[in-house]
Structure formats: C-alpha cells, structure tokens
Amino acid sequence: MPEQAMALPLNLHEYEAAARAVLRPAVFDMVAAGSDDEVTLRENRTAFDRWRLLPRMWRGITQPDLATSVLGQDVSFPVLLAPTALHRLLHSAGELASARAARRAGTIFTLGTCASCTIEDVAREAGNWWFQLYLFPDRAIARDLVQRAEARGASALVVTVDSPVLGRHEVNLRNNFVDPEGITFANVAPEALGSAVHDPAQSWQDLEWLAALTDLPLVLKGILDPDDARRAFECGARAVVVSNHGGRQLDSAVASLDALPAVAEVAAGRGEVLIDGGFRRGTDVLKALALGARAVLLGRPFLWGLAVDGEEGVLRVLELLRAELARDLMLSGRAGVAEVDRSLVVPVGPLSQALGARR
Fold first, then answer.
1. pTM surpassing 0.85?
2. I need a labelling partner for 28 at 20 to 30 A (CA). Which of 18, 189, 264, 304 fits?
C-alpha cells in the first residue's frame, strides 16, 4: 500500500486531528469551539452513548440500500452537508469545493448566509442545494438573499431560528480572532449589515412572511422543544432540524439526540425531521434514524476534510461515513435505511428490562 494512502485518516475523528495539524490554531479553535463552558458541545457526543443497537441475525443481506429522499429530493444516503460559515478560512476554494463534493457524493449541500463564496458561483458548481437564512434586522437583506437563491436553483430554504443573539465563544475572545483580510461574507455587503447580524425581535410572524415571499419548502433549523416543532408545522414548515447549533448558542441546552424522539413524535404525519450535532460514526446515523430522523446534517467533520484536502477531503469524509453506515446496516440485519426503526435501539440502563418492555 502506498505510504500516502496509509497516512490518510481512517475515520472522522482522525480528520479532526489532521485538520488541527494544518490550520492556524485560531482558525481551528473558531470552528471547534462551543459556547461558554461547552456543556452542550460535549453532550452532543455523549448522547449517543445513551443508546445501544439490538441487531438481528442471518438476514442474508449482501448489499444494503442507503438511498432515501428528503423533502421529495433523492439522496444517495441519509447524510447532508449542514450550513456552515466562511469555508475559505479553511481552504481557498471554500464553499465551491464543499458543493462539488456533495454533488459527487449524491447528497444535498446547504449554503449558509455567512458563506465566503457567492450564491451565483456556488449554484454553478452544486448539484442539489439548499440555502440557509439568518433573519437580519433589515428584512430587505433577507428578501434579496431568498430571491437570489430561488432564482439560482436552491430547492429549499433553511431558516435558522436559534440565533436571535450570538452565543459567546470565549476561545475566540482569548485568541482575539478576526477574519483574515479578503475572507468575508460574500453575499451581503458590509455597509448593508452595519453592526447587526442577529435580530432578537424575530418571531413566528417571520415564518409567515417568508412563506408568502417564496415557494421554496421551508425548513426550520434549531428546534429542540416539541411544542416549537408543532408550531413550525402549523405555520407551514415542511421539515425541522433538531439542533442546538453544534453547541455554539445556548450552553446547557439539551443534546440534539436527546431532543429527537419527542420532536419526531410530534412530527409524525405533519412533516420531516432532520438532525445535526455530534455525528461522527455510521452507528450515530443509525441511532438517529431509529429515533425518528429522516436524515442527518454533518457540520464540523466535513470542514475538517475541507481543511485537509479541499474537495477531495470533503468527499472522503462523506465516503467514510457512507461505508460505515453500509457495514453497520449489514451488521444490524437491516436491508437498508428504510428498515431502520425504533426496534433497532434500546436505552442504556437495565437492558433486560428495556428488552422485556418490547415483548
């Protein structure tokens, strides 16, 4: 085996270590950090340890089917790329590289409001892509962004609802982090933004305003409480993303996976449920699907791949996760993601009691 191939990261955890080695410390810290004491950041990972898989044997499965659909859009496996900011901080090709990798992997790329490449440039490179929107105090900015994204072929609008104000990232303050010159928000002019990029006044009325503005399906990102999920669907959302913003907003908020079952129960028959937060393994994806998610959104891990090797790094992160998911489906005795349901998972604790409750 060539020496270079042997040196490639073997999993998503190792891509984080590899990215640390190539990025400026302040940039790595900016991406990796959570808010305040990073309680929620850690809980997003430990939440997966609260569930175990209960596999079935001798099912004769030789080629599991990973394909699914999200909002009626076909994807090759249930992993999408989450909206994240300023990709050019990690690689010169920025969001263009990430979008191309998602297209090659047969999945959806979500372009963020705070992207470092323009909507128009990304649209030329992307396959199926969504646009993520922050509601700036000046709603004219939001109107312009939505209209540009819709005109360039975005297939859904992801509205982030958990950021009326910005969470406090103490590591950035310690590092005195500032964006390098020339790497800025590419889709909003600085003079249009002024000093306000978050709006504490945003409310459910803004969802009604957006629904009247666009024909794109609306996805609300940042939902943890099932009552918020219920209201989102009542106001016209087609899907919600169970998310705590990767532990970067309200610290001590519940882990995304812990919030998922109750949201999925509310969503049944109303719309689809997606989730992000802490996904690193194929078994993580299985647990989320079993607890009611349609698909998961991957955040930091693909950024580590981008930092290490641009487009090819993002693609390899996705392919590593795809290979893990395929193997884990076979080991679980499921012929495909469509066969994954609640019977696959049991809560950690007195397992005999949990298993007995299923009979």
1. yes
2. 189
